[in-house]
Design goal:
This protein is α+β, with helices and mostly antiparallel strands. It contains nine helices and six strands; from the N terminus they run βαββααβαααααββα.
Amino acid sequence: MLRLDIFSDPVCPWCYIGKGLLDRALAARPGHAVLIAWHPFQLNPDMAPGGADRDAYLQAKFGGPGSVRRAAARVEQAARLAGLGIDLAAATRIPNTLDAHRLIHWAGMEGLQDRVVSRLFGAYFREGRDIGDRGELAVLAGEAGFEPAVASRLLASDADRDHIRARDRHARDRGVTAVPTFVVADRYVLTGAQAEDLWTRVIDDIVAQGATR
């Protein structure tokens, strides 16, 4: 069994692309022995609870509309090569993702973590839905198989807010500075969206090692 820890943020386009490439490799190796755990890392930990206007935020970050267009073109090209649909203009706001990370954490307790992560990525990057809105998050939880009433009740509380912030700080203390960051078997660290063939080689190596034991 290979443990793969992934530090990610559901508003990070390269995390979305990285997951898509990993998913393709896993689909190409049915019966794989990969155990995935998703961990919180907020790209914008100081984001206001209501988020920020997407265009204004991106122009401030990249230095003007021309730079934003060039960055978007790189993301769109990478998404196409990964076989992913993406609509960067659909979302009008950059949300605070603390509640989204809380939902991912709870989904892990129900064995639904990967499904919830996938639904959050699709909702934001293909549909432009506000994944910082608690009502929207509860609906998305239900679409991923998590009881929406439970999600709504938990999101309305302060449950695990400090826990998620502590895990985020712990990741930074361990040296995580960007996402996606993949920790393979608690030994090897890969940063950025990795190619599908790299993941298939990793899976094949694990299978081969198991066969020789």
